[in-house]
Amino acid sequence: MRPLTRFWRDQGGGAAIEMAIVTPVIAGLALVSAEVWMMSMDKQKAATALEAASDYYMSGGLSDEEAVDVAMAAWSDAPQDGEVSPVRSGRCGIEAADISELCADGSTAAIYVTLTAHGTSQGLFEPRGVEAERTVRVR
User: Could you tell me which residue, 10 or 29, shows the higher pLDDT?
Assistant: First the structure.
């Protein structure tokens, strides 16, 4: 009985055991934090590229191909398969409308371009999708 009580009172290896238990948890949290940070940075870079393309439209640009080129040039560290896709749509008030037709009141439809940036980025653990979207009114 005496050796057992001596063992329980001995604190010599207590810190090492605590460290062995806590270290994997701290390392795991650090890796997950790094992954989340990388994910948010990838999304921010894609959003910045779309902002450059929307600035192109806002300054009078009309070409979707040119807007895509501007976005791709502004997308720093774009993924290998990264691409920007523009989609035009029209609205008469709050209702969707055909771009080529007049609205019921005789006015022209408002034209919007929805830009979507997407690609696959390499994360710490596995590849992950990167996507950002922005809509801008061009007319």
Answer: 29
